[in-house]
């Protein structure tokens, strides 16, 4: 697309979930459908950006409208990490909408794990995955090159003790990104649906750049939410 507010800008977007293999037939995964990431890719493309989508496991494949975007398919968090790291430096904006597994099985079994004869259940030991978002922010800040705007996502259920907005504010500070999109998630909320509820929070520095920034709250379609996030990239 010619013109548009993001013409000539490169936007890197991660979407879907990561899968951490346990053995050749099993993995640890999550319920991310990739719909929000696809909507973001579509909105960025409509705004004229050159879009690269790093796609983990997705319920839905990119439709024909996304034929002109580059799609890089990945499985594990390690693969997503490598795909983002090798492209982030050239990107003007990075949007980490993927649901990245925080942990992976410490050991991969090269043959299918069997039920043991004595009835004992296997114990799966986990180890930490790299935090792609935090690492990209740290590298950009250290080198002084890379995406000017980095957008993180936070999927929070909240509970009696913690307010999701407060959790998101803490996460925004901890990750050091410019914008954080809070998703209210739960058994019957958000995952796989076309509707969503988001808040967009901005860091203090980003608020100074974005004139008149007010935290946004949208209850609507993932398409509407995506349009608002993309609008924040070119404000
Ligand atoms: O820490 P938490 O998983 O809640 O943070 C969510 C945000 O961080 C999302 O934007 C997600 O894509 C990103 N993330 C990441 N690497 C991880 C875990 C999360 O980039 N290992």
TrEMBL record:
Gene: coaBC
Cofactor(s) the record lists: Mg(2+); FMN
The enzyme's E.C. designation: 4.1.1.36, 6.3.2.5
Positions of region (Phosphopantothenate--cysteine ligase): 11-235
Any GO BP: coenzyme A biosynthetic process
Protein name: Coenzyme A biosynthesis bifunctional protein CoaBC
Function: Catalyzes two steps in the biosynthesis of coenzyme A. In the first step cysteine is conjugated to 4'-phosphopantothenate to form 4-phosphopantothenoylcysteine, in the latter compound is decarboxylated to form 4'-phosphopantotheine. Catalyzes two sequential steps in the biosynthesis of coenzyme A. In the first step cysteine is conjugated to 4'-phosphopantothenate to form 4-phosphopantothenoylcysteine. In the second step the latter compound is decarboxylated to form 4'-phosphopantotheine.
Cofactor: how and how many bound: Binds 1 FMN per subunit.
GO cellular component annotations of the record: phosphopantothenoylcysteine decarboxylase complex
All residue ranges annotated as the DNA/pantothenate metabolism flavoprotein C-terminal domain in the record: 6-231
The entry's keywords: Decarboxylase, Flavoprotein, FMN, Ligase, Lyase, Magnesium, Metal-binding, Multifunctional enzyme
MF term (GO), any: phosphopantothenoylcysteine decarboxylase activity
Organism field: Nesterenkonia salmonea
Protein origin, superkingdom: Bacteria
Family the UniProt entry places it in: In the C-terminal section; belongs to the PPC synthetase family.
